[in-house]
Amino acid sequence: MITLLRRELVEHPASWMVPAVLGGLFVVAALFAVFGIARVGIDEVQFSSDVFAEAADPGDIRAVLMVMFLPMAALFAMVISVIIGFYLLDALYADRKDRSILFWKSLPVSDLKTVGSKYLTAIGAMPLQALGVFVATAVLVWLVLGTAGAVAGTSQFLVHGPSALLQAAIVLAYGLVALGLWLAPVHAWLLLVSAYAKRAVLAWATLPPLLVIVAEKTLFDTTYFAILLGQRLSGGAELAFSGEGNAAIEAVDGGVSAVFPALAELLTPGRFLAAPALWAGLVVAAVFFAGAVWLRRWRDDS
């Protein structure tokens, strides 16, 4: 299985190259901000060395770092989700398109293990790569901001950065796990389409749900399936994260004042795992996954 996972990651370098480019842009933006080349900030707060020098309160500094890190983490999660979607759509289709499936079927590797390796790559290996690139990016951004703060007269950013960085990494890791579980039926559907379609996989993935929506609206004048699909594609953030204790950052007397909720207030894994919609989605995902394995075993395009 490890060899199969390595093969998938080697053949799909976009899973780390795109997050790496994104991380590079964040580091460049941090450098531009501290050198005053560009105005970088949130709302009316502009991140500059003067602001860092004024923000000497440890609580404010941790909150400022979290308010900066979490939008970065959310963008990383969004980007890797899009990459995973296209990867799953192409995972089994590409093997049939270039006829490499004939070689892989000649090996003593079961269809279950092959399809499973592609699914594990999507929900495990690729999110782990994105998490690693995010941590590397956050460390570089923290060092840039911390050094600027030290030059401006405060070392608090360097001192309190690791704890904020660790919390941001925990939030992203939790978010990626929750996203993988919530989107499991969508991921498995893409894998099933990849195993079935002879061409135009994107059309095969999107047209059937659209036809169901149109048919339901035409026959019953209802939109239950569209609402269900919209809730599924939203990512389940409303269940995995609390809406209480909102984060905020504002400019105060030349410095910044920031608040950020504790992780215990922000993360709600109990509510997420207790949601019936999560488990119903996992059952649907298991059916789609079994269908993908069956199609790969018996599909003969020769």
Describe the structure.
This protein is mostly helical. 77% of the residues lie in helices and 5% in strands. The protein is built from 14 helices and four strands. The strands form two sheets. Strands 1-2 form a two-stranded antiparallel sheet. Strands 3-4 form a two-stranded antiparallel sheet. Helix 4 (58-97) runs antiparallel to helix 6 (111-152) and helix 6 (111-152) runs antiparallel to helix 7. The protein is globular and about 70 Å long. It starts with a helix and ends with a helix. The mean pLDDT is 81.
Task: Please provide a brief summary of the model.
77% of the residues lie in helices and 5% in strands.
- How many angstroms does the end-to-end distance come to? 27 Å
Strand content: under 5%
Low-confidence stretches: none
DSSP, total strands: 4
Percent of residues in helices: over 70%
Question: What sort of overall outline do the alpha carbons produce when their principal axes are compared?
Answer: globular
Tally of helical segments: 14
What summary fits the major beta sheet?
2 strands, antiparallel
Strand order of the largest sheet: 1-2
Order of helices and strands: HHEEHHHHHHHHHEEHHH
Radius of gyration of CA atoms, rounded to a whole number: 23 Å
Question: What average pLDDT do the residues reach?
Answer: 81
| Class of secondary structure makeup | mainly alpha
